[in-house]
Each structure stands twice: as structure tokens, then as C-alpha cells.
Amino acid sequence: MTAHSLGIEAANFSAPHSAFLSARRVSEQLGVTLSELARLVGVARNTLTAKAATRKVDLALSPVVRILAMATEMAGDESRAVIWFKHQPIPGWAGKTAYDLVAEGKADKVLAYLEAVRSGVYA
User: Fold this and answer.
1) Model confidence pLDDT, tens digit, residues 36-54
2) Residues 6+ apart with CB under 8 A from 36
3) pTM for this structure?
4) What is the 8-class DSSP label of residue 104?
5) DSSP H helices in the chain
6) Confidence of residue 55 (pLDDT cuts 50, 70, 90)
7) What are residue 41's phi and psi, to 5 degrees?
8) Is residue 60 scored above 80 in pLDDT?
9) Spatial distance between the Cα atoms of 17 and 30, rounded to a whole number of angstroms
10) Which of the four, 28, 72, 76, 113, has the lowest number of CB atoms within 10 Å?
11) Please, what sign has the CA dihedral across residues 89, 93, 94, 99?
């Protein structure tokens, strides 16, 4: 899965002159260190910066980028999407944020929630 196959918004997270996602760009957008991003997506920090690990990095980062792209589309602004991702509790998850759920390996639950909101289920 490449940044371009994730959508136009996700292209903001690709490495320069590359079809792959950039861990550095994702970490900058989220305002976290590469070590924090590695913990969030469940890979070793060295994996995020290794040249040979581009496909593995893409697989690890793509759920986060998908969530941020969808949240940006809904919020209308990248910075508001990041604030939501890191700080806004998701209903039904005991005060947990999208960041918390992604760190627990539940990015699919966040994406399902966003799809439901976008469809008007929770609106």
C-alpha cells in the first residue's frame, strides 16, 4: 500500500520523491518523536528509519495515515484532526482516544467509528 493509494490527503505523508509513507512526516504531523511513533504503530524505532523496511513501515503507518486523512476531511483542517486523534475520547471506549486505540492495535475500530460518523450514524 503506497501513500498515493491511500488518497490525496495521505500523499502529504509520503517521503519526497517516493511512493512510500515517511515516518518522519507522520511523526512531525502528530508532534511526536520517532520513538513515540514506533511505539504507537508497534514497530522498532530502527525499522521506521531503515531504508530496506519501506514496505513494513508503510503497513505500520497506513492505518494512522488513513485515520488522519479521514479525520482531516471531516474536520476540515489537519491540525484539528491531530488534536482530535490525540486528545478527544471516542464514545464507547471508556475515555480512550484514537491515539490510545491505535497503540492497542485497534486502528480498525477507529476507522469503523469514523466511517459510522461520516455515514451519519452518530451525527
Assistant:
1) 999 999 999 999 888 777 8
2) 27
3) 0.84
4) T
5) 3-6, 23-30, 34-41, 45-49, 54-75, 78-87, 98-103, 107-118
6) confident
7) -95, 0
8) yes
9) 22
10) 76
11) negative
